[in-house]
Amino acid sequence: MSDLVHPDRLRKLETLRQEGVDPFPARSIEPSTTNEVRSATTSLEPGTLDTQVSLTVSGRMRSPRSFGKLIFIVVHDRAGKVQIALERGARESWPGTPEKVFQLFERLDDGDQIQATGRPGRTRKGEPTLFVDSLELLAKALAPPPEKWHGLQDTDTRFRRRYVDLWANDGVREVFETRAKIITTIRHLLDSEKYLEVETPMLHPIAGGATARPFTTHHNALDRDLYLRIAPELYLKRLLVGGLERVYEVGRVFRNEGIDTRHNPEFTMIEIYRAHADYRHMMDLVERIFGELQKALVPAGIMKFRDLDVDLRPPYRREKYLDLFQKYVGGDFFDETFCKKKAAELRIPIAGKPPEKLANDLFEECVEGRLEQPTFIIDYPVPICPLAKQKPDDRKVAERFEFFVAGMEFANAFSELNDPIDQAARFEAQVATHDEEAPAAVDVDYVQALEYGMPPAGGLGIGIDRLVMLFTGKNSIREVVLFPLLREENTGAPQSK
Question: How far is CA 44 from CA 70, 97, 143, 305, 461, in A?
């Protein structure tokens, strides 16, 4: 047993078993929700109950209060909470709560899972209440809940014990309900536009589709190393070659990088690919997606995020990457000498970085924080876009955009490169850098797929976790991931040798 278990609760557990009560029964009946119980009292006068109706509610017992012949308990379930009452003595045509229920109550504790059946009514003060006929224990809580007034406040403990955080702290459940609504809203839009939802591998023979350090694992039967995917992009574009002209995938991706308020090593992306489209179509799609989310979650259109009043109503402004680089960094992206000097001034690490990565670090440092209102940054330099098409009228830049709100990137998109010769050359150049975030080998199979012909296409990736941060007003990605990765907990136990 852990050190969270309270000895008094253990004693009550043993007493229950001695009295023939199973503290962890295998079954319970399907209950009404707490909202349904509350709704059943809307037509009742204060101080009355409906003796013709019997309802059952199940959930976590909180805040028991005893007033002699009357005991109030708040029951929490997935829909909310409702008060139940154990009352000694008859009322109208209702005989009151049986004595055996009071006896069971003596063995219960704050936090136990219970099931109560009774009559909907209102207290004299008008509070919707279920007056109990029968009560069952569904699960004995051996660990006590957090203190009523202080809750579970330490952030590290909250994330480790999300199973407590969800019911102990107001508003936490709503964050994850909003998360589900965001994903559902995007799915409905894409399904209505005839996109096909697909699933692609999470174990990749080559880490590709994005620039990031991968997690490595080993498959024993094949005796080969594999990588947790850093992006599903290259498999989704294989499907365009196969004739699935509009596809999308919602799924986990994994990047072996640091942890901060915007980054978790595993996170959720939606990637979308459409044949016979380009990055302009993808910008329009972003506006439709954010427009639908705005209507569903922020009807007024303007919301507060990170102390900014953000106007989410499309359309959104569009700015060129190189124009912003010149304006805010103060030089030429392609001038390696300038970029090194500027990086040194800003104390940005230089050693071992390819010139294009160093220049992009300057952009991230000097420009991205200025992008407060929803903005598309378009036409990125080709050296940092190994999977995007060059612009026909300006071969230095690629048809790529990133979408920013409040200084955070929310989406990344390209006009997809479909020339197998050009793609192979760019892969080879990436590999030659020996950068730890670049692929270790050319993805020959993907190049071979392009050799069969991929139609012109646009591709788009959106980070779901950051979307949830935006629409719930949370400043840390850990607030919107149910179980974020944390440092190993120091339990004080001896370390194995």
Answer: 20, 20, 38, 42, 52
